[in-house]
Amino acid sequence: MNIKEIKELMKMLVETDITELNLESDGTKIVIKKGIPGTVQPVVKVTPTPAPVACPEGNVVQPEATVITSALEEKEKPLALNQEYICAEIVGTFYKASSPGEEPFVDLGQTVEPGQTLCIIEAMKVMNEIESPARAKVIEVLVEDAQPVEYGQPLFLIERI
Fold first, then answer.
1. Is 59 inside any structural domain?
2. Domain containing residue 152
3. Contact 102, 117 (CB under 8 A)
4. Are 109 and 118 a contacting pair, CB within 8 Å?
5. What distances in angstroms separate CA 46 from CA 33, 62, 110, 156, one per listed residue?
């Protein structure tokens, strides 16, 4: 599917009572969700079926590694065995909540479950959910709301429970 077809699907979803659309085509899975009327922001999650998108170092940074990015240059430190970074899977704009004025998806110190949405990264007017890979506690949020992020940039530091 190309971006034009995805945009047409999103437009169709907004014009109907359907709240969620799941498609799988050519090894790509597309999930489009619609929220409450008045705050409609379609959330599109595109995931290649064979292999998930990963940070350059892998989806998470291994505990022994030290991450050096523009966002963490001053925070060079080894991680505990059960700690890891959750990295941006795409280039875009980081959002802590689904819309302005809403509660953030997660707060510092909160326990999250596998698959729970941690944030949204907007890329080309498409909202991409970043999910927790495991049951964990959010130790640190490394990005400010509405800040641009790069592919592979650490967004959260979590501690597996």
1. no
2. 73-160
3. no
4. no
5. 12, 25, 26, 21
